[in-house]
Give the backbone structure.
Amino acid sequence: MSVPAGVDVVSMAHKPSTVRVADRVWDAVALVFVVAGIALFAVARRALGAMAAGLIKLPKGASYVAQTDWHVAQIRMAVWLMATGLLIGVVAAARHKLRGR
C-alpha cells in the first residue's frame, strides 16, 4: 500500500487508556440497571398480557386485581430502575467529559 506524497503517516502505536477502572465500573453499573429494568418490564408486561388473554388460571382465593396490582408495581419498579441507570450513565458521561477522558 503506498501513501500519497505529502501525507504524514502517524504511527498507530497502542496508547494507554486514560479511563480508569472505577469509571468503567460506573458505566457497567448503569448498564446493569437499565438491562434489569428492561427485563423486569418485559416479565411484568408479558404476565399482564397473559392475564388479559385468559391464559393464566389463578388458584382459589387469589384475586386478579391483586395480581394486576403486583405486575403494575413491577412495571413501576422497572421504570425506576431504567431511569436510575440512565441517570448514572449521564453522570458518568459528564464525569468522563469533565476529566477529558
Remarks:
- The two ends are 33 Å apart (CA to CA).
- The mean pLDDT is 88.
